[in-house]
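Whiteboard transcription, Tuesday session. T.W. wrote the C-alpha cells on the left side:
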C-alpha cells in the first residue's frame, strides 16, 4: 500500500515546483498496476492524465497558479462521465459508451488542477452494498481478500486504501460512500443533498443520489468538497454553497450535544461494532462532548421505505438504456421492438432487472397508494423526527454498518440479507442530511462511526468529525 501525504501538502509541493505532477501521476498508475488483484479499477486514463500533468508542470514552471488541487491524482467511480475512458457504471449495457462531456464534479476538480487517473469498479448502476453486483468483477477488501469492500463505491474505497490515489469520488444513494468507507477503514463523506451537482453522473435514484469524496482523512474530504460544492445550472436541485470554507475545521468540542441513536445500537449490531462505538464515546466525553441516547421511532421503517422509493426512481432512470442511445445494442435485432427487448434483457444484470420490476410494480395504479405513497409518508415522518432531534442535538452518531466487512459470496444470493447492510445509512439519504463515516481505532477489520447533522450544516460536521478523528 502506498501512503500519500495530506492533499494540502501534495498541492504545496506541486505549486512550489518541489513535486512534479507527472511523478504523482506515474506513482498512482504504478500503484494501480501493482494492486490489480483487488479488482478495484475498471480502466486507467493514462494518456489524458499524463497530458494534464505535463500541462500543470509547465504552468508551474512559468510561475502560474495551478489550483487548490494542483497535480493531485484521483479516481472516479465509473458512473461519472469522464473523458479519456469508457463510462460503464459497472454494467454490460453501457459497455462501449464514451462520455461526450464530463460530470460537473470532475470539471470542477480539474479546474483546480486535480487529475483523474482511473475509473473505479462498482455494483452495476450503484445497486448494491458489496461491489459483487458489478457485471465485470468483484472488488476485494484491501484488509482481507476474502471479504467484500462494501458497496456500491467499493472500487473507489479500495483504491484509496491501496494507495492508488490520495482520494476517490463515490456516489451515495443509500449509503454507497459510507458503507465502503466503514468496511475499508477510509473516510467517506455524503454531503447535504444538492450540495454537489449530479450533472454527468449516471442517475440511480435522483431524489437521494449524492456525490462525495472517499479519503484518508476528514481534512482531505473537506478540501475536495470545497472544490466541488455549489450551485450548477446543469442540475436544478443544486443549492448554494456555504459562505464559510468547508476547510475551516475550527470548532470547540466542549459542550457539543450529541445524540446516540438507540435504534442503531440495539440487537443485530455485532458486539465488536457496538463496543468500538461505546469506547469512542467514553474517550470523547473527556473533551466535554455531551452524549445522550435519542430514539427516532420511525427509523425501523427507513429501510423498507428506501427499498420502495429507490426502485421506483431506478425503474424510471433506467428506461433510457434501450439499445438505441448508449452503449450496447443487440447485434441480432432486426426491428426496434426486438432491439429494446434483447438489448435490455442481455445488457442488464439480475439486480438491475429486479429493481426495474419492483419499481414498476410499486408505481403501477392499484399499488401506488399501498406502497409508494406509504413509503413517501414514512419519508416525511423521518424528516420530521430528524429535524426535531436536531433541535436538541448538534450531531447524531452511531455505527455506519451493523457488521464489519462480510465474506465474498456470503449475502450475494439473498437480496434481502444484502439490503440489511444499509439499515443505518439510508435514513440520511431519505432526509437529505449530511453524514460522514470515519474509521475507529480497532485492531481487527475496520469499523466506521457515522456522524450526521442537519441539512446544510456540512461545515460544522466536517469540523466536528475532524476533531473526533484526532481525539480517537
Ligand atoms: N446499497 C444501497 C442499494 O443497494 C445503496 C446503494 C447506493 O448508495 N448507491 O441501493
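and on the right, the sequence the group agreed on:
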Amino acid at each position: 500500500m502506498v501512503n500519500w501525504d495530506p492533499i494540502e501538502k501534495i498541492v504545496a509541493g506541486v505549486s512550489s515546483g518541489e513535486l512534479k505532477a507527472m511523478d504523482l501521476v506515474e506513482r498512482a498508475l504504478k500503484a494501480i498496476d501493482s494492486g490489480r488483484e483487488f479488482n478495484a479499477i475498471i480502466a486507467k486514463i493514462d494518456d489524458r492524465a499524463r497530458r494534464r500533468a505535463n500541462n500543470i508542470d509547465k504552468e508551474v514552471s512559468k510561475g502560474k497558479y495551478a489550483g487548490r488541487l494542483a497535480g493531485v491524482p484521483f479516481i472516479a467511480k465509473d458512473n461519472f462521465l469522464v473523458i479519456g475512458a469508457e463510462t460503464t457504471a459497472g454494467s454490460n449495457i453501457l459497455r462501449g459508451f464514451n462520455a461526450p462531456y464530463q460530470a460537473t464534479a470532475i470539471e470542477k476538480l480539474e479546474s483546480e488542477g486535480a487529475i483523474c487517473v482511473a475509473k473505479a469498479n462498482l455494483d452495476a448502476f450503484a445497486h448494491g452494498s458489496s461491489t459483487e453486483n458489478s457485471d465485470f468483477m468483484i472488488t476485494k477488501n484491501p484488509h482481507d481478500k476474502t471479504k467484500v469492500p462494501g458497496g456500491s463505491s467499493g472500487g473507489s474505497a479500495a483504491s484509496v486504501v491501496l494507495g492508488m490515489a490520495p482520494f476517490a469520488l463515490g456516489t451515495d444513494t443509500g449509503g454507497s460512500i459510507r458503507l465502503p468507507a466503514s468496511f475499508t477503514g477510509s473516510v467517506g463523506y455524503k454531503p447535504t443533498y444538492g450540495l454537489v451537482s449530479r450533472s454527468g453522473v449516471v442517475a440511480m435514484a435522483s431524489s437521494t443520489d449524492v456525490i462525495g469524496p472517499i479519503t484518508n482523512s476528514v481534512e482531505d474530504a473537506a478540501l475536495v468538497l470545497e472544490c466541488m460544492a455549489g450551485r450548477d445550472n446543469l442540475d436544478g436541485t443544486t443549492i448554494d454553497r456555504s459562505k464559510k470554507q468547508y476547510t475551516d475545521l475550527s470548532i470547540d468540542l466542549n459542550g457539543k450535544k450529541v445524540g446516540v441513536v438507540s435504534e442503531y445500537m440495539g440487537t443485530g449490531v455485532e458486539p465488536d461494532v457496538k463496543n468500538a462505538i461505546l469506547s469512542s464515546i467514553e474517550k470523547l466525553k473527556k473533551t466535554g462532548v455531551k452524549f445522550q441516547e435519542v430514539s427516532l421511532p420511525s427509523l425501523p421503517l427507513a429501510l423498507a421505505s428506501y427499498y420502495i422509493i429507490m426502485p421506483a426512481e431506478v425503474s424510471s432512470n433506467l428506461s433510457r438504456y434501450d439499445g438505441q442511445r448508449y452503449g450496447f445494442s443487440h447485434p441480432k435485432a432486426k426491428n426496434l421492438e426486438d432491439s429494446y427487448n434483447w438489448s435490455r434483457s442481455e445488457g442488464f444484470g439480475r439486480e438491475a432487472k429486479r429493481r426495474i420490476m419492483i419499481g414498476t410494480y410499486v408505481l403501477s395504479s392499484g399499488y401506488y397508494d399501498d406502497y409508494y405513497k406509504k413509503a413517501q409518508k414514512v419519508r416525511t415522518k423521518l424528516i420530521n423526527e430528524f429535524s426535531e432531534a436536531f433541535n436538541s442535538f448538534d450531531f447524531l452518531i452511531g455505527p455506519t454498518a451493523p457488521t464489519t466487512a462480510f465474506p465474498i459470496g456470503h449475502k450475494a444470493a439473498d437480496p434481502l440479507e444484502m439490503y440489511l447492510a444499509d439499515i443505518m445509512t439510508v435514513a440520511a439519504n431519505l432526509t437529505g442530511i449530511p453524514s460522514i463515516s470515519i474509521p475507529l481505532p480497532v485492531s481487527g477489520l475496520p469499523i466506521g462511526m457515522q456522524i450526521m447533522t442537519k441539512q446544510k450544516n456540512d461545515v460544522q460536521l466536517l469540523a466536528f468529525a475532524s476533531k473526533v478523528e484526532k481525539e480517537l
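Someone added at the bottom: Residues 126-129, 152, 171-176, 204, 310, 422 surround glutamine (CB under 6 Å).
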